[in-house]
Specification:
This protein is about 25% helix and about 40% strand. A hairpin with a 2-residue loop joins strand 3 and strand 4. About 15% of the residues are buried.
């Protein structure tokens, strides 16, 4: 389950980061204040669900 981090800017959150599942194109309904927090969350999600480590490539977090 690879993720992509993108910037969203809508009320009531203002500018924030969200995650999109690349395979299904679904957006996770979770808002992050910083890009680093979003990346950390995605890495943990990959570790828990797939039992694999991940790496960051641009705005994408992919399992190794």
């Amino acid at each position: 389950m690879p993720f992509e981090v993108f910037i969203a800017n809508h009320k009531p959150y203002g500018k924030h980061y969200m995650l999109r599942n690349i395979k299904t194109s679904k957006v996770m309904n979770k808002h992050f204040k910083t890009k680093e927090k979003a990346i950390s969350f995605a890495k943990n999600a990959i570790m828990i669900s797939e039992k694999k480590k991940s790496k960051v490539v641009g705005n994408k977090i992919i399992p190794i």
